């Protein structure tokens, strides 16, 4: 049995012509690319929100979506059946629920759900935030709650869209380290969208570079930096940056 | 805190015109308030026209509101989610009763549900029944609810619903546990508008349901009937209606303030 993602999606969505094909293994995989390249659309499609696409999405040998183009059976699992945790760019915390209720949302109902939510919060060191509403939390705290909520139902895969974009520099550095620790420890397939190279370096995953709806390049950071396939990649992966340790080259 | 350049200067012609309108709006209400002493009000309420009309209004508007909330909430959801030209056509159709004069709606209702109407052949004959009162109120008042709630649903972030789905919620559960609680201010606002409009319904009710005491004579029709018999009764009933409307407005405003959830994005920006 193979583990990880097999993604193949094609279709026209507004101005975007999406034609993406890649495979990715366990642990975090970084989806990187310029604005408007289709990264968010890709994650939403994998989560099950975008219709009118052709192709196939497989997670750990489980077919989530198959438009049946290889004369295979048509498959469309609705989002609630995919067992994929999704954290959108704005985090998507339910503003009318406490942190605990947010995390318990995906764990069923009643006392058992709350107990499970507490465990998830505790694992991310956020138990003391349980009773707070999202607007009472800082950006980094909200990030933890969103991640705890996505992890609590024990999904098979994770989709994180620009998980650090809403944070200020200090929070960003701490949360990046925290995210790297938890994603690598969880070991489950995760697609992390970013346009910040430092996220990619901290998470140490493989890179999938997306430009204008297509996979431009895929591979390990060092390999891509050695032979950039486009101007965007060349500029993004300036070898002077990549050579340094996964520190904060731009943040001093 | 207001920008001094944006603040209105005193005594410009615009301010005078605005204040003129304000006086014009408030003067009739003040006159109504001053017309009846508390004693006269009590006496008028004892008039045989009043209590049956009040009870009928309370009953019919309660049923109307329940029907509108149960049917109008899903319709508002569909309108808010739908894309494309058909959605806009349906939206315009839903708004039509807002701009069509109530008397015209009364004629239209007769043509649809009257003995000689479209559905008359099926044995449907509603006119001059309490049901007709409710039908008239629903047709005239529902658009206010649907409009308000659809606007509320449009404001719900798609991502919240997708997150709810990925956490295992069915579309129905995502709707009930996320969209509806977040739209409570719009729902309360729409319900208040709808109820106030139903309570005041006159034209369509008069034409379609008539003015039969105890059966179809709601408060506004009772005012009309009392005006021919005793002006003091008419003013007193009018005052009761005005007070009810005022209380509805205050309650809706208070509810709107209490039910709004601060968006984390906005709160985050302040930090």
Task: Please give a handful of descriptors for the protein shown.
heterodimer, A: 252 residues, alpha/beta, Rossmann fold, 2 domains, six-stranded mixed sheet, five-stranded antiparallel sheet, 10 helices, 11 strands, globular, disordered C terminus, B: 271 residues, mainly alpha, MetI-like fold
Describe it.
The complex is a heterodimer of chains A (252) and B (271). Chain A is of the alpha/beta class and 252 residues long. Chain A has 2 domains: 1-83 and 158-252, P-loop containing nucleotide triphosphate hydrolases (Rossmann fold, 3-Layer(aba) Sandwich); 95-154, no CATH class. In chain A, 35% of the residues lie in helices and 25% in strands. Chain A is built from 10 helices and 11 strands. Chain A has helices at residues 39-47, 79-82, 99-104, 110-123, 139-151, 169-186, 197-203, 221-226, 231-236, 239-243; strands at 5-13, 16-24, 28-32, 54-59, 62-66, 75-76, 84-87, 157-161, 190-194, 206-211, 214-219. In chain A, the strands form 2 sheets. Chain A has a 6-stranded mixed β-sheet with strand order 7-8-9-3-10-11, with helices on both faces. A 5-stranded antiparallel β-sheet of chain A has the order 2-1-4-5-6, with helices on one face. The model of chain A is unreliable at 245-252 (pLDDT under 50). Chain B is mainly α. Chain B has one domain: MetI-like (MetI-like fold, Orthogonal Bundle), CATH 1.10.3720.10. Helices cover 76% and strands 0% of the residues of chain B. Chain B has 13 helices and no strands. In chain B, α1 (13-35) packs across α12 (231-259), α3 runs parallel beside α6 (130-154) and α5 packs parallel to α10. The longest helix of chain B is centred in the N-terminal third of the chain and has 32 residues, at 50-81. Residues 266-271 of chain B have low confidence and may be disordered. At the A-B interface, α2, β7 and α5 of A face α7, α8 and α13 of B.
């Amino acid at each position: 049995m193979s583990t990880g993602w097999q993604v193949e999606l094609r279709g026209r969505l507004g101005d975007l012509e999406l034609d993406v094909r890649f495979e990715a293994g366990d642990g975090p995989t970084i989806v990187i690319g310029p604005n408007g390249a289709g990264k968010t659309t890709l994650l939403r499609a994998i989560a099950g929100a975008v219709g009118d696409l052709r192709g196939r999405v497989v997670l750990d040998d489980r077919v989530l979506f198959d438009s049946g183009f290889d004369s295979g059976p048509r498959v469309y699992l609705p989002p609630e059946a995919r067992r994929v945790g999704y954290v959108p760019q704005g985090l998507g915390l339910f503003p009318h629920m406490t942190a605990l209720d947010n995390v318990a949302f995906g764990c069923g109902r009643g006392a058992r759900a709350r107990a499970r939510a507490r465990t998830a919060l505790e694992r991310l060191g956020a138990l003391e935030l349980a009773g707070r509403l999202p607007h009472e939390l800082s950006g980094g705290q909200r990030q933890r709650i969103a991640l705890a909520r996505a992890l609590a139902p024990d999904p098979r895969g994770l989709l994180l869209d620009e998980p650090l974009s809403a944070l200020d520099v200090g929070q960003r550095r701490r949360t990046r380290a925290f995210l790297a620790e938890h994603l690598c420890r969880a070991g489950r397939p995760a697609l992390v969208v970013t346009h910040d190279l430092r996220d990619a370096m901290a998470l140490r995953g493989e890179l999938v570079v997306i430009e204008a709806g297509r996979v431009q390049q895929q591979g390990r950071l060092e390999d891509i930096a050695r032979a950039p396939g486009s101007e965007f990649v060349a500029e993004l992966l300036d070898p002077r940056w990549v050579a340094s340790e996964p520190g904060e080259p731009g943040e001093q | 805190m207001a920008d001094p350049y944006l603040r209105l200067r005193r005594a410009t012609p615009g301010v005078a015109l605005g204040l003129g309108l304000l006086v014009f709006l408030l003067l009739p209400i003040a006159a109504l308030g001053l017309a009846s002493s508390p004693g006269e009000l009590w006496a008028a309420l004892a008039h045989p026209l009043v209590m049956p009309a009040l009870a009928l209004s309370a009953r019919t508007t309660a049923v109307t509101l329940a029907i509108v909330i149960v049917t109008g909430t899903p319709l508002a959801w569909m309108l808010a989610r739908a894309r494309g030209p058909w959605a806009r056509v349906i939206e315009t159709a839903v708004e039509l009763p807002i701009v069509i004069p109530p008397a015209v709606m009364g004629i239209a209702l007769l043509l649809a549900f009257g003995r000689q109407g479209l559905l008359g052949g099926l044995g449907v004959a509603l006119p001059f029944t309490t049901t007709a009162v409710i039908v008239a109120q629903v047709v005239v008042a529902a658009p206010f609810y649907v409009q308000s709630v659809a606007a509320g649903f449009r404001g719900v972030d798609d991502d919240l619903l997708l997150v709810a789905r990925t956490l295992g919620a069915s579309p129905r559960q995502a709707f009930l546990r996320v969209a509806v609680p977040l739209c409570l201010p719009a729902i309360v606002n729409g319900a208040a508008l709808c109820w106030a409009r139903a309570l005041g319904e006159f034209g369509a009710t008069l034409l379609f349901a008539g003015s039969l005491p105890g059966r179809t004579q709601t408060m506004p029709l009772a005012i009309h009937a009392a005006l021919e018999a005793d002006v003091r009764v008419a003013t007193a009933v009018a005052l009761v209606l005005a007070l009810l409307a005022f209380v509805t407005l205050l309650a809706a405003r208070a509810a709107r303030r209490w039910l709004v959830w601060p968006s984390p994005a906005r709160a985050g920006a302040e930090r």
